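Hello,

Our lab assistant flagged a job as stuck in the queue for most of the afternoon. It eventually completed. Since we weren't sure the result was trustworthy after the delay, we are filing this so someone can double-check. Below is the sequence as submitted and the structure that was eventually returned. Let us know if re-running is recommended.
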Amino acid sequence: MKIFAQTALLPSGWAEDVLIKVLSDGRIGSVHVGTKASSQAAEVRVLVPAPVNAHSHGFQRAMAGLTERRGPAGTDSFWTWRRLMYRFLDQLTPDHIEAITAFVQMEMLEAGYASSVEFHYLHHQPGGAPYDALSEMSERVAAAADCSGIGLTLLPVMYQYGGCDQRDLGPGQIRFRNDLSQMTFLMDGARRALQALPADATLGLAPHSLRAVSRSDLVQLPELLPKGPLHMHLAEQQAEVAEVQSNWGARPVEWALENMELDKRWCLIHCTQMQRHETQLLARTGAVAGLCPMTEASLGDGIFDGVQWLNEGGHVAIGSDSNIRISLSEELRMLDYSQRLRDHSRAALASEVHSTGRRMFDAIVTGGARAAGRKTGEIAAGHWADLMSLDGDHIELYGRTGDQILDSYIFAGSDALVRDVWSAGRHLVTNGRHSARSQIEAAYRETLTQLTDTL
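-- returned structure --
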């Protein structure tokens, strides 16, 4: 397969008249600049690397729009939202999980993401009894990826306790629980499930958070996956910081820096409750900060210090987390606008070299590749052909060149500018529409019908 781009963002910068050859295994075989269009090539106006969605809880997509009421005390927070989420998930069957996850993966592809990292913690039946196959739900996530075609990094999540005091899990949460020995079997089952997918599927591993896993198991858990990505929620909420500090004698980031071998394998999600010294030290470990700006705003988490983090050389990736809305352009816009509002500034994440949109985009394609354990993020030979074309004929891109293309897409445009998406060479989105949208949406509608009035 060949793709000809009038304009493409290459590792060396913007280039004109670019011909990309994609091999049968889904990797980029060659990139030639300054060539002529070929009748055998798919022709696009603007081509950029397609980012990774670095953090998703697929099943939460079906909750979108159902939690915008105040709690019984007249206030609402992350913690009241979480109770509603637990009530919702207690209704979900494996069939529901597969249909919802396929739908949200399809939306991700239409938004420009080529791959998704599924932070998967819903393992058991309501009441906590395992399915006949411990990895049943992981298998359904893999089946959804087979249907949508998205590149999948699957993270089976270890979740033991309801808090740092190791209290029992409550209703809803009980479906998450696995100890270290169960995680060994779960990982084996997840690995087998991924073998049915194309070769770009990847297995990772995730302790849920400091409050949900014992200190001793946090140290041992990475031994189950000698290579591959490791993810964990960290320092998301003020109450979480207070709980860890009260029980473990240090703030979450301080404790993790002191007691865990944090390096480039790790992606730490949210990190919205960090002090300046924590931001500096964590950025220098090489770990990726997995940011989910729309969810962090929705849940009132706080604002990640992207300005200091990037200036310290930190790596970032973007995720959709609760999946209340799937929009790559809006996630990036929210990330930068939150910095502007906090600091009373403009173009907060721009650098002396690159515009705001270009700096953010470069950061998330590089950080996303690291977070997913996936050779992606560049239009270069040997990388997976994870590619996104933008509509160069759209009025928002009229007359735009170079970094202005990304700035206009993010700050003036929307995901309507996304025309084509390839995931490891699989051409899944054409003219903004997923090739299997009709059947995926039909299955999702049936699921929604069955879940009506569960909240």
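-- support follow-up --
The delay was a queue issue, not a problem with the job. The result is valid. The chain is about 35% helix and 20% strand. The longest strand covers residues 13-22.
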